[in-house]
Amino acid sequence: MTRVGRRVVAMDMRGQYETPGTPDDPDAYRIAALGADILAVAERLGPEPVHLVGHSFGGLVTREAVLAEPTAVASFTLMSSGPGAITGRSAERATMLRDALGVLSMNDVWEIKLGPDAVAAGQPGPVISFLRGRSLRTCPRGLIEMAGELTTAPDKVEDLCKVCDDADLPIMVLFGEDDDAWDPRVQAAMADKLDAVRVVIPGAAHSPAWEAPETTAHALTDFWNSAERR
């Protein structure tokens, strides 16, 4: 993004990788608290409103920020996220992770599940090394609460519709054609309800920014430029 003159800031949520957490406070990892963190960072980056992008669980978190303070946001992109709780096989995986972290260490979970999954997905060595380091520096309590939120989050599309309409806030729903977290059909229906720009990334699954970086960056840049022209 720096090539098109934009400053991009990526943040770890509480307890994830390089951001310290509060291990003994489950409420610190709930969506409402994490959404407040987003607003605090946006205020620090200000005074201009930010183009906000929320990926996966981050979509549910950033949605809380938009609902609470839409004037802090110049545009909102939901990337590979959905209207509420995940279902089906995705919910089963989240529940399995939550239960495993109740009895195993992060290192155990990496060795038993996350590491083999990364190898099976064909990730190159440097990426696997990064994923391992990130996993081992992530707070188990944060992941347990995240799994709980992912499987119980309410559908707030109607609330988001009202807020975005009232604030005239541009919104985009972007997802890979083969997303295996929220069904692409569910994300498409959400985009229709929100009257949002809808972008489907060919050949991508749940992480289009990694799986198709140039296509994803181009879609984001076009959307941000359009939002600014408004």
Number of strands: 4
> If you average the pLDDT, what whole number results?
93
| Oligomeric state of the chains in view | single chain
**Strands ordered across the widest β-sheet:** 1-2-3-4
N-to-C CA distance? 21 Å
The share of residues in helices is: 40-55%
Q: What structural category do the secondary elements indicate?
A: alpha/beta
In this structure, how is the largest beta sheet organized? 4 strands, parallel
Mass-distribution shape? globular
Which stretches are low in confidence, meaning pLDDT under 50 for 5 or more residues running?
none
Q: Helix and strand string, N-terminal first?
A: HEHEHHHHHEHEHH
Radius of gyration: 17 Å
Helix segment count?
10
Strand content: 5-15%
How would you describe the overall organization of this protein?
It is built from 10 helices and 4 strands, in the order αβαβαααααβαβαα. It is of the alpha/beta class. Helix 8 links the parallel strand 3 and strand 4. The chain starts with 30 loop residues before the first helix and ends with a helix. The relative contact order is 0.15. The model has no long low-confidence stretch (mean pLDDT 93).
